[in-house]
């Protein structure tokens, strides 16, 4: 992240073929909280139709850990495309997008947190996803986005929740989470109102928070009928020598220090359960 201008995250556009599975994935996935696509959404997604020279990037739509510890991931890509998940160690796993543009991969259990790159190959063109996939041993799944706006899996019950806090070495930050579709969400940091935004039609919101000071902060997130409070600490992203990322447990959440595709350092906090107010 280089400043507030990069911290405005819009709605993720999905290929039209993915719309039919949004409702099924919303329970375990990263596609919102309680609302499936609308005709207007489908009209927007139609712009992502592949052409001879253009291929929309593959997307992660959802994921969940089974009772055996294996992780099932679901996503969208160009129908028939070869989809690749690759770890920094070089290990790869492949899938083929079906006629509806959906791909599915089952990963073996791992005692270590994982960061995966997603790409696809179609008719000689290789297209890289714009985000990384973070998988924790406890089953947490998130899309880490350079510049902020990380999408973490929502809690089981619907409602207002802060899910991820991203910041860079200048402490420019974004707070992302879920609310009711189109609900206006406001956040106070240490008692001072800092940002306000509307959730999109899927219930996802991103709040820009430029120049947070170093240290611990108290956050108060307010929607139309709910309020949640939590604490988080902001400091300099960890220096990464050889590894492209480092992930550690923080309370009931996770901290991921990672190197963005542009080479910058970014920290993502996957937030744990929060105190709910009146």
- Terminal residue distance: 34 Å
Query: Total strand count, please?
Result: 20
Question: What summary fits the major beta sheet?
Answer: 6 strands, antiparallel
Neighbour order of strands in the largest sheet: 4-3-6-7-8-9
Q: pLDDT under 50 segments (min length 5)?
A: 1-48
Q: Return the CATH architecture of the largest domain.
A: Sandwich
Estimated radius of gyration = 18 Å
List the total number of helices.
Answer: 2
Average pLDDT score: 78
H/E order of the elements? Answer: HHEEEEEEEEEEEEEEEEEEEE
Oligomer: single chain
Q: What is the CATH domain class of the largest domain? A: Mainly Beta
CATH superfamily of the largest domain: Immunoglobulins
What name does CATH use for the topology of the largest domain? Immunoglobulin-like
Proportion of helical residues: under 10%
| Total domain modules | 2
Classify the secondary structure makeup into a structural class. mainly beta
What is the strand content?
A: over 45%
Described by the principal axes of the CA atoms, the overall outline is: globular
